[in-house]
Amino acid sequence: MKKATAIFLLLVYLFGSTDASQLLKFPLLVEHFRKHKQENTHLTLQAFLKLHYVDEQPFDDDYLQDMQLPFKTPDIICMTLPTVGPPAPVTLFTPVIELPREDYLVINDGPPPYRLPDVILQPPKSSSAPLS
């Protein structure tokens, strides 16, 4: 039972949210090829596919049948899952709350640490004193 349910859900997903549903139009492709084959006995499957999928599609007598072939027009299907829980409240405006202004003490208001003279890691400095 679990396997059948899993297969069913997979098929629902594949045919609902991918282009796999175009494969259901495959019998139309076969029937349309047979129709063209009756009109022109020298037509090959490759030439038929090139005529309908590669070349510019002419607006002729069977144009509407051509557009019903698989992968000719996109089938747009939107699936959404229901959400559980109450809907989010809708607010039309956001109230502005002004907080009282206070003066705050800023701790790092001095020079950056690398500018202080007592820092250990500093680049070498040239000295004017002679070496002995």
Could you characterize what this model shows?
The chain is an all-alpha fold and 132 residues long. It has 4 helices and no strands. It has helices at residues 2-17, 26-39, 45-54, 63-67. The chain is elongated and about 105 Å long. The mean pLDDT is 77.
Shape: elongated
Radius of gyration based on Cα positions? 37 Å
Distance between the termini: 95 Å
> Which structural class best describes the helix and strand composition?
mainly alpha
Topology:
Elements: H1 2-17, H2 26-39, H3 45-54, H4 63-67
What keyword list fits this structure?
132 residues; mainly alpha
Outline:
With 132 residues, this protein is an all-alpha fold.
